[in-house]
Amino acid sequence: MSERRRSPLEPVAVSPFHCTPVQLRRILGGTPFFAPLAAEDINRLADRFRQTHFQAGDTIVRAGDPATKLAIVAAGLVKLYRPTADGQDVVVNILKSGDYFGSLADLGNETYAETATAQTDCCILLVTAGEFREVLERYPVVALATLELVADRLRNAHAVIEQLSAYPVERRLASTLLTLAERIGRADGTRILIEMPLSRQDLADMTGAKVETVSRTMSDFRRSGLIDSGRRWIAITDAERLTGIAGGEPV
Amino acid sequence: MSERRRSPLEPVAVSPFHCTPVQLRRILGGTPFFAPLAAEDINRLADRFRQTHFQAGDTIVRAGDPATKLAIVAAGLVKLYRPTADGQDVVVNILKSGDYFGSLADLGNETYAETATAQTDCCILLVTAGEFREVLERYPVVALATLELVADRLRNAHAVIEQLSAYPVERRLASTLLTLAERIGRADGTRILIEMPLSRQDLADMTGAKVETVSRTMSDFRRSGLIDSGRRWIAITDAERLTGIAGGEPV
DNA sequence: CGGGGGATTGACGTAGCTCAACCCGAGTGG
DNA sequence: CCACTCGGGTTGAGCTACGTCAATCCCCCG
After folding, report:
1. Is residue A39 within 8 angstroms of chain B, CB to CB?
2. Which of B1, B72, B61 is nearest to B34 (CA)?
3. A121 with A10: CB under 8 angstroms?
4. Global pTM?
């Protein structure tokens, strides 16, 4: 039985950093969007991007506001969610370095469908939708890469729809934990630590369940030795059995 | 109280038609993919597409099979769904003329994530994934149009996720009916007739509910004068109140 | 006119929501 | 450095929307 008292998450250095132009170019070149471009092309692109720093909890863009920018996460984690009329939030994605959000369309009169908030401190690169469109037109290879990214997200979204339509909470929760582990997990001895602060409410908003239900299910998982967790941190201790549950086996 | 005995759906002429080359070009030019292209470019594209006819009920592509083709619906309606391990189907989309399905990726070793079946008789245009990729590379404007299409579907998928996460069946069902009406409805006197054969099971698979629940809710809607329906057909009689329900008002 | 598959309705069970009390870890200010 | 507080987490006791099981209905077809 492991120590549940102290959070194993390293407190991330809260530096309101700004990248040097060189770093900015390296980050851009590392994103799936621009990876296929030559260095000189990336240099030409770089000054179209404005970088901004946000603190954990800050709202980056708000659902309903006119969608004028495309954003790329340079560092940190972003929560993308749809706030509903009755105050419930539905998280559609957790974004990390290299992911985009915001407007892909050029139509100026559209609005953001989702709110994006900084889950950790983060550095965001912003372009206007129009400028990004110019980039897409000028570099077809970037357009193709973007297409792959969006198609990938669509595939994920369909998987989530399947889960919400057909599977009970324990299964959705197991899937969500495994997906998070794969995307932002770090091996920590025999466990996989999910390297982000994540509340039960966040998990509830990601799985379409209520906080209490998530808390109960997490307690079940913990009692069964599948996970270890505390206040805003989670580690997976038995990925294999958790995978079984995600596939439909009983707890 | 309207006549519920006979189906108001016109029995569609079941002709295993093949388009002439001229018709094929006109159809391609009418899709969102190629609308921005000049006629001569479309002519050059047209012979990359192979057209195939399917009868209602036929399977066009099967989830799990290697994803080698991209398909565009030329005529008719296609149901796109994920069959789950326990035999339940989750419908992610109903596709009509101009919509695509299948593989957008170039990776040959991927598999289809969804099964596509002909909901009505239909005519499908097929290209290999590789050839379509060449088209995307050659005509950036097509790549951008494709990007818009995929981004649009992603937006829809997120809306569905919101619904499944946060709203009860009656609300999801009302939304689904209105969306169908908008996409494939025809004004029929004061009502909007949904021009496709649609079973309670189909609706259940689209809303993440069970047949019996859908049947009960449809009966409620009918008793309240919101819709009219029978064996595999539906008409909306009070779109305004139905919109209210989709927005959260009680029945 | 008979059969079959979709649709309907009823009776009942239960997963997950609601409401509410309580616990506890971590940051804060004296 | 301690006490206080506050926000996240846990647990319990009902309740209800929805699923399950099963019987019946009835449109459509041969």
Report:
1. no
2. B72
3. no
4. 0.95
With CB atoms and an 8 Å threshold, state whether B153 touches A154.
yes
Which CA distances in Å does A118 have to A67, A220, B25? 18, 30, 48
Continuous H helices in A139-210: 140-166, 169-184, 200-207
Q: Which residue has the tokens 């324990």?
A: A170
CA of B90 to C1' of D16 (A): 25
A218 touches strand D (CB under 7 A): yes
Render the burial of B45-84: b for 16+ CB within 10 Å, e for the rest. Answer: bbeebebebbebeeebbebeeebbbbbbbbbbbbbbbbbb
Confirm if A178 and A236 have CB atoms less than 8 A apart: yes
CA angle, residues B212, B217, B223, in degrees to nearest 5: 125
Q: Which residues of B spanning 186-215 put their CB closer than 7 angstroms to strand D?
A: 208-210, 212-213
Report the DSSP pairing between strands A69-75 and A59-61.
unpaired
Segment B62-112, tens digit of pLDDT: 999 999 999 999 999 999 999 999 999 999 999 999 999 998 865 556 899
Which run of H or of E encompasses A220?
helix A211-223
**Model confidence at B8: pLDDT above 90:** no
Q: What chain A residue is nearest to B112 in terms of C-alpha separation?
A: A155
- Helices B21-30 and B39-46 cross at an angle (nearest 10°) of 120
What pLDDT does B1 receive?
Answer: 41
Q: For residue B78, which phi and psi values (nearest 5 degrees)? A: -125, 135
Average confidence score pLDDT of chain B = 92
What pLDDT shows up at residue A104?
85
The answer to whether A211 and A201 have CB atoms below 8 angstroms apart is: yes
Closest CA to A234 of A171, A173, A192: A192
Could you write out the three-class secondary structure of chain B? CCCCCCCCCCCCCCCCCCCCHHHHHHHHHHCCCCCCCCHHHHHHHHCCCEEEEECCCCEEECCCCECCEEEEEEECCEEEEEECCCCCEEEEEEECCCCEEECCCCCCCCECCCEEEECCCEEEEEEEHHHHHHHHHHCHHHHHHHHHHHHHHHHHHHHHHHHHHHCCHHHHHHHHHHHHHHHHEEEECCEEEECCCCCHHHHHHHHCCCHHHHHHHHHHHHHCCCEEEECCEEEECCHHHHHHHHCCCCC
